[in-house]
Amino acid sequence: MLTEKEKINKAFEIFWPLAISWLFMSLDTPIISAVIGRMNNPEICLAAHGGIVLPIALIIEAPIIAMLSASIALSKDWLNYQKMYRFMMILCAILTIIHAFICFTPLFFVVVRDLMGTPAELLPFARVGLIIVLPWTWSIGYRRFYQGILIRCGHSKFVTIGSFIRILSLMIVLFFGYIFRNHVNGAIVGAAALSAGVVAEAIFAGIKGIPVAKHFLNHDTDVTVISNKELASFYTPLVITQIINFGWIFMGSAAMNRMINPIASLAAWPIISGLLNILRSFGNACNEVTMTILLQPGYYRSVRKFTFYVAFGSLMIYALFILTPLKEFWFQTFSALTDQLSTLARNALLLVFLIPFTNAFLNFYQAILMLNKKTKGILEGLLVFFVVILVFMGVGITSQKWPGIYIMTSGMNFAILFQTFWLLLRSKSFINQYQSASE
Known about the structure:
It is built from 19 helices and no strands. It has about 450 residues and is mostly helical. The protein has one domain.
């Protein structure tokens, strides 16, 4: 019987490869933004990349982002793995076709110009960027499917290595883009770097994941294969959840376009959201750790304490950015923002004080619901988040008193708090069961 300290140490052993992977994934936007900020026409290119291309790419990929959790939960044996693989490939194909329609048809102007209200000077930069990131969705779906296999079979270290390959590929493209900065704009370079990174990581995940699946998954034919109805029941709430999860970013860009000083807010947005992704990266890993550890009885108290440690550590990192010269380094030295944009971003960072700590527990409660196949509760929590942030957007648009980035960051701050409380309420019955098993 393991002691509580040994259980927490076991949680940290699973945590570190995943946390580093999340950290690597969160570095995409800051690194790309830092390079774009040093190229020609930085404010326009930052706004086009971070405020238009990325939100659209994210909402298109939203239905596939839950594939990692689905792969962990449902690819229990070889036959179920094969069914999940077919499902993933079909879904990726459909989403890629939707992406292509937005890029190459008049639908682009409906979505980007009319629906998002994008300023005219950003449109040509945004369209080229969207075309370049066309491989994004399929690569991410394929990658997350095999990452789930690797995590389930105890090979999470390959997830970390894959994330490193992604960053390395991205930086190689950025390096050459910067060298030829007089011949190519930052929006093109940023989009090319994004695509190169996810494609390289997807290839690596497949190379490592396929043999692991063949070797470690049960190949018995006398198993129950998940039915289409069961798969739809499990995955549909996750799809809706992710559409809302990324949809608010899309709507946020549209809202900022309708508030004061829109281009400045859109230009500062990838900088502040990139930093926020870094601050949330460790808490995000609590989802996979909780799902993995709670498969074993008697671990609830240890995982809860582990989650608190991660939440507190994330808060301390946030405090460093607020209270030390690290903020000047990040916004001015690293990100190369102008004085105006740097001030805007620093003020926005002050408005997300609840997120670093709360995010760890959000992922903790979310994992409990997912582990017990109660994904409807996760959807409900995100709807709470969505309603709160919509209220903030409405206030920002009608009042016309504050830059859009202030409205978005303050809205996120309180929306995630309400979302976490809802997930706590929905997972309460399962928590009581886990607590009883731990006694």
